[in-house]
Amino acid sequence: MSALILVATPIGNLGDISSRALESLRNADVIACEDTRYTLKLLSHFGIQKPLISYHEFNEQEKSHEIVGMIEAGKNVALVSDAGTPAISDPGYRVVRLCRERGLDVISIPGPNAAIAALSASGLPSDQFMFVGFLPPRQSARKEYLATLKSFTGTLIFYEAPHRILATIDDIREVLGDREACICRELTKIHEEYQYGKLSEVKERIREIGEFVVVVGGSRDEENPVQEEWTRERVLKTLGISRNQLYELFFKK
After folding, report:
1. What pTM does this model have?
2. Share of the chain above pLDDT 90, in %
3. Quick one: pLDDT band at residue 228, thresholds 50, 70, 90?
4. Using CA atoms, how far apart are residues 224 and 151, in angstroms rounded to an integer?
């Protein structure tokens, strides 16, 4: 049975690849990859030789139709990104959508993901979170977008490049406040590093080298009176009582 197979690949340590991922790459007729140079290194390490086609953000529209044509012709096409899970802040969404629209099979081979790895090791609440990905590179647009996240009570997860990491931390602190954060650098690699504390504290300990995941605590009630009011109103509505009745029940002595 032909299918599009999304194969998660290591974000640094090659030992993180799963046996199922390797089996999927070995059984694929074609491997679509973001950068053939990165993928060739991975395949060579595991002794895999397969035809490669380039699939990246600049040719995604055109290549999606080509890949779908291959699957409709009976081929298994494995899709990988340079690192991590395809379609998560990487190309992949368009070809998956096209396959769904055509009724073709799409199989996900789960594995490494920098956002989830960072969240799990951050020490910040993980019961509710939002993966934001990369913020806009321009400061004005970045601050404007951050303002839309101010009332979110769950943990926020960002990706950032080394040359923008300090400016981004400054902007997050200015817009969202001096929240608890964990700045994760070079995950799964030799120089893996975590800096935990208030944004104002961790900034002083950051080296502008490598790849970063920024994990930031959510809005607190005192930062978000609108959210607090909404919660109170919802409780009143659920209980079917007025504010005065609530006061009589719980607060009046």
Report:
1. 0.83
2. 85
3. very low
4. 6
